[in-house]
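Lay summary. Proteins are chains of building blocks that fold into shapes, and those shapes determine what they do. In this project we predict the shape from the chain. Here is one chain we studied, written as its sequence of building blocks.
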Amino acid sequence: MKKKNKRKWKIAGFSILGIILLIVAGLGYEYYKIQPTNHFSTVPVVSSGKTGDTTSTSESVEVKEPVFNLLLIGSDERKGQNVGHSDSMMLVHVDLTKHQYDAVSIPRDTRVHLDGYGYTKLTSVQYIMQATKGAKKGVEAAVNAVAELTGTPINYYVETNYGGFQAMVDAVDGIEMSVPFDVKLTHPWYGENKNKVISAGTHSFDGKMVAEVVHERYSLASGEYGRQKLQEEALKGIAKKALSPNNITNLPSLVKSIPDFVIATNMSTQDMLSLGLAAKDFDPNTQLEYHQIPGEGKRMYDDILKANNYQLVIDQDKVKDLVAQNF
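And here is the predicted shape, written in a compact code that computers can read:
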């Protein structure tokens, strides 16, 4: 009887051990799959960057190295709304082999051509397409407008709004942010911050204050270009905090909270985890190069609004040079 029981326990023990080994093997395989060189062997193409090209978002291409372009979109969409303007846009060239990132801000007031509508501001493209064709078509139209403007294919996009930006900062328990110049909050989200001045220097901010600072542009000497610099510093602070050695083990739980601050994206959970693993120990001072696109502000006719408004006519030759050198 004892021998029988002993045999049963042996069988049970081997079964449990077998299950554990299968689980470990499975986890090992999943970890192998999200390694950047394995995971990003193929990437989607949202827009090819060629004028008039309507590449399907379901298409993907093989790449020899984990190198791709990611568009970050900040929308002014409010809670309960389903339309919004592209209030800020940043195109990032990601090279996970060299661990280098080139980012360029695309001014919201840039004059662009929207098929079927005419000339308008870049910020209006997403709004009008969302209002007429739905949320997904709206964000894809915004992505395509940036791709055509820069002549650069775009593989991934991530869209958030100011509430989401606030949640993102709070998800990493606040950030250290370098503020390059004094900022007066003339159009704050929260009334109690009206006309508050944030002095130049490094500050510890929660999500609420970061959202306030990156929203401001009217009080800045360089207007939209100044706001782009503030957004750059905020993103540096978020990335540095989220990808620090102390926080990298929390990356999976941070990724799980993404629905709290992302409105739209074509990146999967595995895409984000793989990108996070590749970018661990991120140092913005050595790994990130930031660029701005120069242009001339003019009052021009907007075919959507049927009226003149302020638009930025960018220097296409400088855009081509920037893309050729860095993208």
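What the prediction tells us: The CA atoms of residues 291 and 322 lie 8 Å apart.
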